[in-house]
Amino acid sequence: MSSGPDFIEKKHLTLFLFVVALFFFWGVALTLGDVLNRHFQNVLHISKSRSGLVQLAMFGAYAVMGIPAGIFLKRFGYKNGVLLGLFLYAGGAFLFIPAADARSFDFFLLALFILACGLATLETVAHPLAAVLGPESTSDRRINFCQAFNGLGGVIGPALGSFFMLKAAEGQPSELITVKNLYLVIGAVISMAGLAFLFIRIPASLTDHSEKTSIYLPDTPNGYSGGLIHQKHFLFAVAAQFFNVAAQGGTWAYFINYGHEVMHFTDEKAGYFFSLSIAMLMVGRFTGTALMRFIAPSRLLSIFALANVLMCLIVAQGAGWVSFIALLSINFFFSIMFPTIFSLGLKNLGGNVQQGSSFLVMGVVGGGLFPPLMGLVANHSVAKAYYLPVVCYLVIFAFGYFYPRLVKRAKT
After folding, report:
1. pLDDT at 10
2. Domain total in the chain
3. What does the pLDDT look like over 78-129, one tens digit per residue?
4. Using CA atoms, how far apart are residues 339 and 379, in angstroms rounded to an integer?
5. Would you state the pLDDT for residue 117?
6. CA distance 214 to 208
7. Residue 263 DSSP one-character state
8. Which of 140, 224, 390, 407 is 20 to 30 A off residue 356, Cα-Cα?
9. Residue 1 lies in a domain
């Protein structure tokens, strides 16, 4: 057991635990956005396609903030990057208070955009930071482990939203006080986390990306020099991440609608099932982390992508519990996709790792563009809308399948 590479360097354990907490924090915020999608339909009386702007505001922030966050990280370091992310996260949450008072959907979108700029900054910082806190050979497992706690936050987010928002909306459809109070608490918690992080020390050695973060491709001990444009595995990773988060954004945005319209659940009950599906995502990440000890991450990625092609085809049939169980299962197979694509994309970037991280974060904009498109189909049939993510999972399958060949080409 002791002969294998360490999962985490012991001297970085405290810092690693805080990084895990960051993954948890943005998991709560992202899945709460999907509950808000349905809540705004009920309270502000907007269509499914217009409510999809919730995802556009959140994931669109990733496209806007990705490059600036990478530049900020490179210039000011990990610690200031985390503090900036937490500041924007808390600031956006506090803006929910005047937005609720104004009963303005556009104001809510602005608050979500600022909050999501904080999430984009945290993701830009946290992924490479998690990667360098141990041997490069275990970076895939380490990022998947952190993402498992992102999944835990994703379980708590819709559970909170369903209890405090959707339940209240059924009794008092014009009420937004629960939204205001919930985000007030979230803003306070994130602010306290920022104050706590002021006392966390990040060793200067971790900022030396010329050596420490030269995350090489498998079996390539000397790495491969060259800019990002020459790293074909990285370019494919950015495209795969775009379609990956597109599938995630669309699947999650209309989950509650599917439960309500196809399964005839109340919104609150559908929200709890959404929380269960995120729990399956968390289980999938722990399972995937374990399986990667025996199966190459790229191969496991392609297997899970094909599984989700099948799940989406079953969901689109609207065949009662069979289709709904397939909808729940999508998150299990989706689980490893974001962290694995991110980790595989970062390999071999050396001194470009921060810039590469920012581009991979920008790929998240797919989650903002896809839900309004799915919403146009969902306005007529929410079940049929689930045909669209099939295209996304086929792209992810192709990335996982061709990744070893891209590695071989880079070595030559």
Report:
1. 72
2. 1
3. 899 999 999 999 999 999 999 988 888 899 999 999 999 999 899 888 888 8
4. 32
5. 94
6. 9
7. S
8. 390
9. no
Residue whose entry in the numeric block shows the structure tokens 């992810």: 396
Q: What secondary structure does DSSP assign to 130-181, as a single string?
A: HHTSS-GGGHHHHHHHHHHHHHHHHHHHHHHHIIIIIHHHHH-TT--HHHHH
pLDDT class of 225 with cuts at 50, 70, 90: very low
| The predicted structure's pLDDT at residue 301 | 95
Q: How far apart are CA 61 and CA 121, in angstroms?
A: 10
Cα-based distances in Å from 217 to 94, 123, 337, 351, 355: 43, 22, 18, 14, 17
> Is the residue at 185 inside a domain?
yes
For residue 5, tell me if it sits in a domain.
no
Give me 158's structure tokens.
Answer: 């819709």
Residues 107, 109: Cα–Cα separation, whole Å: 5
The percent of residues in the chain predicted with pLDDT above 70, rounded, is 87
Predicted confidence (pLDDT) per residue in 267-280, tens digit: 888 888 988 888 89
Domain CATH code at residue 240: 1.20.1250.20
- What's the domain range around 89? 10-411
Rounded percentage of the chain residues whose pLDDT exceeds 90:
32
Q: In whole angstroms, what separates CA 12 from the centre of its chain?
A: 24
DSSP calls for 358-392:
HHHHHGGGHHHHHHHHHHHHHTT-TTGGGGTHHHH
Distances (CA, A) of 9 to 12, 129, 214, 393: 6, 13, 17, 35
Question: 306 or 42: whose pLDDT is higher?
Answer: 306
Q: Answer whether residue 355 is part of any domain.
A: yes
> Residue 81: which residues within 8 A CB-CB, separation 6 or more?
69, 72, 73, 121, 124, 125
Residue-by-residue DSSP string for 189-202: HHHHHHHHHTT---
